[in-house]
Amino acid sequence: MTRQGISGMALLPTPLTPAPRLATALGLTGPLWVKRDDLTGFAVAGNKARQLELLVEDARARGADVLVTGGTLGSNFVQAAAAAAAWAGLGCVLVLAGPPVPRSAHPNLAAATAWGAEVRFTDDLDRTTVDAQLPVVAAELTAAGCRPYVVPRGGASPVGAEGYRLAVDEVLAQLDGQAPVVVIAAGAGGTLAGLVAGNVALGRPLRIVGASVSRPPAEVSARVLELACQVADRRGEPRPVESDVELVDARGPGHGVASPAGDAAAALALRAAGLVLDPVYTAKALAALPAAAGGQPALFWHTGGLLDAIAGLMGGDG
Ligand SMILES: Cc1ncc(COP(=O)(O)O)c(C=O)c1O
């Protein structure tokens, strides 16, 4: 077991497992591996454990006493942030887009509340209202004598993204010279940005494709490139360029809405490999994998989303 941050929150490395039956079920001709970041070993954090480990470490190093972040009602990240803050001994204030709802409205909200976070609502479903509220909440907390540490939606800051820069060292050691096409869900983009930064730092051994589930690929790729360059700058490593960021449109009917292709991929993953995929991120990413891999050996990077998978099983309406 290794630890990438001094906080030692995530249990790393996560397994890299071959999935031959799933490869056949998906109609792939080459081998398929699954990187099990649904098993990062902290709360129900999935991919967000790698980011939050570094974020809470940074928050503590800066003397902060309360983590302030936000997202949508079903956000895995806010749930994971609440757990990380509790674990690190920090307070947590979450800003959610939309009108107030009871904690039972979504398992991620129920968990975040159970882990001690204070939840506020923007009264507007537009996700950018969260971005506008975060500094307002931070200023209010500062005025009340607290020391807030603000994290953007999805943990998509250079510090958070660095968690996935470090994950590239981990996966390359596991792949032992093999170079599959990596397919991973991209939302806010911090996860993909870290992978891109790591791939470039280590000489571009991999092709990495982000399955954009939240925004049009062109919008995400600019953000991913900017973040990846910030990660590289922090570490004094070579900066990625535009061609290092590859994204496909995996939104289907829209962000947060299950797609028929995703549902079909999730059913195959469960039956052929025992993998639980959520309808918002991982199912759509797996559905995009066969076309993205283009007949090459492939690696599906499982990013978690277990509570959203449960919400989907319960009817998808939270
Ligand atoms: C299960 C899951 N997979 C993938 C992602 C995408 O990560 P990012 O927002 O860093 O692009 C998220 C983000 O919330 C997620 O919850």
From TrEMBL:
Pfam families: PALP. Its cofactor is pyridoxal 5'-phosphate. It comes from the Bacteria. The active site is at residue 75. GO terms for biological process: alpha-amino acid metabolic process. Residues 12-303 form the Tryptophan synthase beta chain-like PALP domain. One of its GO terms (molecular function) is D-cysteine desulfhydrase activity. The modification N6-(pyridoxal phosphate)lysine is found at residue 48. InterPro entries: ACCD_DCysDesulf, TrpB-like_PALP, TrpB-like_PALP_sf. Gene3D superfamilies: 3.40.50.1100. Keywords: Pyridoxal phosphate. Belongs to the ACC deaminase/D-cysteine desulfhydrase family. This is D-cysteine desulfhydrase. The lineage of its organism: Bacteria, Bacillati, Actinomycetota, Actinomycetes, Geodermatophilales.
